[in-house]
Write a structure and sequence with these properties.
By secondary structure, the protein is of the alpha+beta class. It has three domains: about 60 residues, OB fold (Dihydrolipoamide Acetyltransferase, E2P); about 60 residues, DNA polymerase, domain 1 (Orthogonal Bundle), CATH 1.10.150; about 70 residues, no CATH class. It has a five-stranded antiparallel β-sheet, covered by helices on one side. A hairpin with a 2-residue loop joins strand 4 and strand 5. The two termini are about 30 Å apart.
Length: about 200
């Protein structure tokens, strides 16, 4: 399994890059958002990767962040959504925006992506919200850390932020205590951004 690539950026095109590692060039399909975050050809670059294998198709997909890779994995788990559609969606929305749309049930916004119809958009929201809810139920009940933020979660914006952060791969126990300490008057997207900022700052210590 190829988990990530780190090397010289040999080719940079819309939706496609080549990372040269040890004399071997790895071609990766990717989103426009990831391409925009990479430097110029010749620069050092790194990507998180996903190897997609189906019958006679083997393709490598690359993403600038772990969050975007998590979103890609979630999208291709939805019936009727393949890697091409998944990268198209992630070309139009950031991982944070994607998580917010799922958490808030905004399927209409996904139809703005070319090739994504209303039924597919509704499936994305329905299946992924159900998946996050199932993971929440499967967790060890309301953990002490989550209970500390239970009253705050009563706020729809905090509840949506919690679901969105779980879409990005974080656990209840990891983000609920942080959400519980934030200004509850913040919008859902601001709560998501502030929580991600605090997690990143903590990880740098």
């Amino acid at each position: 399994m190829i988990y990530s690539l780190c090397g010289r950026l040999a080719v940079k095109e819309p939706g496609f890059v080549v990372i040269e590692c040890g004399g071997v060039g790895y071609g990766c399909r990717t989103s426009f958002n990831t391409v925009s975050q990479l430097g110029q050809t010749g620069d050092e670059a790194s990507l998180y990767t996903y190897l997609y294998v189906r019958e006679d198709v083997v393709e490598l997909f690359g993403f600038a962040t772990q969050q975007e890779l998590n979103c890609f994995r979630l999208l291709i788990s939805v019936s009727g959504v393949g890697p091409k559609a998944a990268t198209a969606i992630l070309s139009d929305v950031t991982p944070e925006r994607f998580a917010f749309l799922v958490a808030s049930g905004d399927s209409k916004s996904f139809t703005k992506t070319k090739g994504i119809g209303a039924k597919t958009a509704q499936r994305i929201v329905l299946e992924l919200k159900d998946k996050i809810s199932a993971e929440s139920t499967a967790a060890s009940g309301l953990t002490e850390s989550f209970a500390a933020a239970a009253s705050a979660a009563a706020s729809s914006s905090v509840s949506e932020a919690l679901e969105a952060l779980m879409v990005l791969g974080y656990s209840q126990g990891e983000v609920a205590p942080i959400l519980g300490k934030l200004d509850q008057s913040l919008s859902t997207q601001d709560l998501i951004k502030e929580t991600l900022r605090l997690i990143a700052a903590r990880n740098l210590r």
